[in-house]
Specification:
Blueprint (H helix, E strand, L loop, with lengths): L2 E2 L29 H9 L3 E8 L11 H10 L12 E11 L3 E4 L1 H4 L4 E5 L8 E2 L1 E6 L4 E5 L10 E2 L10 E6 L7 E12 L9 E4 L11 E3 L4 E10 L6 E5 H14 L5 E2 L2 E4 L3 H6 L8 E6 L4 H5 L6 E5 L2 E2 L3 H10 L4 E9 L2 E11 L1 H11 L5 E2 L6 E5 L2 H7 L9 E6 L4 H5 L6 E5 L2 E2 L3 H7 L5 E8 L2 E8 L1
Parallel strand pairs: 9-14
Antiparallel strand pairs: 1-14, 2-3, 2-5, 3-4, 4-8, 5-6, 7-8, 10-11, 10-13, 11-12, 12-15, 13-14, 14-15, 16-22, 17-18, 18-19, 19-20, 19-21, 21-22, 23-24, 24-25, 26-27, 26-28, 28-29
Length: 468
């Protein structure tokens, strides 16, 4: 089944009523003006999200005469990877708190360098949004805008009591057509598409199209019951939504820590091919084969050994390595789970305590660490700091033979960002003048025209052109 990525979501947090919905009793006919009033209530909470992504590199700049001149002057090797034009995308979100907190899909804002929010369809003002938290596995993200007034908010309902056949309404910005409302029913519950999401989806026939991603799916009481996020590209009237009960479980985590922590057992896993099964005398290719145990990990403590085959996790069958990895990643942290393994042809039960993934611990430490740098002049839009061991360790920078300044901040939408400059870039020279200290960066930049900045990024040297 071909699935198109996230298409829209839904949420209502604290209720602010601009319209009063007609009373709806179960089993009674719906009031004739129900959806009219529903639109009046929900549309003010729905926002248009416009994102821009600046691909940092591209091969060849054959259509750029200026780039051709630079290529001849500096040589072709420095232009093997260069900055490409901005890529734009549209999506939807909705306000869940009056101070400008917005819920949307992760795929709407993931990878974006610039996020702009439009509150109403004809509003000329665009608000800069910052990412508060996001999680790819659940496809949920929180962003925030700053305004001087309290904003209308959507009210989050519950999805556990939904029944197939109930009326629902979807809101969003399909193909950028502004605030659009469609209606349909709940078609099914518990749709599992593991490639897309951690949670089982709600299925609806309310029309969903690209641009709806992040918009709310609402019941007849004006409560958000799901986050619509994908469609079946082969069909009409088959859309999928993340149940709002599952969304609410992670909102506080996202706002507090910025991401959802993953579970960790400390094993490397492999799928079992027919050849492996024959060699290891296994009766089936089902399960996850252990290829490595990380030292001092929960798996090592539990006694897991290479060539063990995981068969079950917490009573659920393990089909393959990816399947088990998802189980472990989604498990409750610091909780002990029962596993079944096949070791040398014998089925054995054991218990493993799932801990926080080490990468998540590192990310949390990095988030708390901040550095004060020197700001580049002429509103170019970046800050630099002198290279030091603490910074190199925190940001995983390469060791240098000679001191060089490091970019620690790039302003969204600035000339520096448009050029492809990113935090962590080590500046080698500016306009062919070597830079050993941050203050030399500031002195080397020119006010008008362009600046050529040569940077070390990982093990690559790039030449960037910054216009001023």
């Amino acid at each position: 089944m071909k699935i198109l990525a996230p298409l829209f979501i839904c949420v209502l947090f604290f209720s602010t009523s601009f319209a009063k919905l007609p009373e709806v009793s179960k089993g009674e006919p719906l009031p004739s003006d129900l959806f009219v009033e529903l639109a009046k209530l929900i549309n003010p909470t729905v926002v248009n999200i416009n994102t821009s992504q600046i691909p940092k590199f591209r091969k060849g700049l054959r259509n750029d005469p200026y780039a051709q001149f630079l290529k001849q002057f500096f040589g072709p090797q420095v232009f093997n990877q260069q900055q490409a034009p901005q890529a734009h995308s549209l999506g939807t979100g909705f306000i869940i708190r009056k101070d400008g907190l917005i819920l949307t899909n992760n795929h709407v804002i993931d990878g974006a360098d610039i996020i702009k929010v439009q509150l109403s369809e004809n509003d000329e003002k665009l608000y800069d949004a910052k990412v508060i938290g996001k999680d790819k596995r659940t496809d949920i993200a929180l962003i925030k805008i700053e305004t001087k007034v309290d904003l209308p908010v959507a009210k989050l309902g519950e999805s556990k009591s939904l029944e197939v056949g109930e009326w629902l309404a979807a809101f969003g910005n399909p193909y950028g057509h502004g605030h659009t409302m469609t209606k349909g029913i709940l078609s099914a519950r518990g749709r599992n598409i593991n490639e897309l999401n951690k949670f089982s989806f709600l299925q609806t026939d309310a029309s969903i199209n690209p641009g709806n991603s992040g918009g709310p799916l609402v019941n007849v009481h004006g409560e958000v019951v799901g986050v619509n996020t994908a469609i079946d590209a082969r069909a009409q009237g088959i859309g999928f939504a993340i149940p709002i009960d599952d969304v609410k479980k992670i909102l506080t985590i996202l706002e507090k820590s910025g991401h959802v922590k993953r579970g960790y057992a400390g094993v490397s896993l492999s799928n079992i091919s027919p050849q492996m099964a024959h060699s290891l005398k296994l009766k089936s290719t089902s399960g996850a084969l252990v290829t490595q145990i990380i030292e001092s990990s929960p798996a090592e403590t539990a006694g897991i050994k290479p060539y063990d085959v995981f068969l079950e996790f917490d009573g659920k069958k393990v089909s393959n390595a990816h399947n088990l990895s998802q189980y472990i990643s989604d498990a409750d942290l610091n909780k002990t789970y029962a596993f079944k393994i096949n070791r040398n042809g014998k089925v054995k039960g054991l218990k493993i305590k799932i801990l926080v993934h080490p990468d998540d611990k590192l990310a949390q430490r990095k988030k708390k660490k901040s550095y004060k740098g020197q700001k580049a002049p002429f509103n170019i839009g970046f800050k630099v700091i002198n290279y030091n061991r603490a910074l190199a360790k925190t940001w995983n920078l390469p060791r240098l033979r000679a001191p060089r300044p490091v970019v620690i901040e790039v302003t969204p939408g600035s000339a520096a960002e448009k050029s492809g400059l990113i935090p962590g870039d080590i500046i080698l020279d500016i306009n062919r003048m070597k830079t050993a200290k941050a203050r030399q960066v500031l002195r080397s930049l020119k006010k008008d025209g362009f600046n050529l900045i040569r940077v070390l990024r990982g093990n690559r040297v790039l030449l960037l052109q910054v216009m001023t």
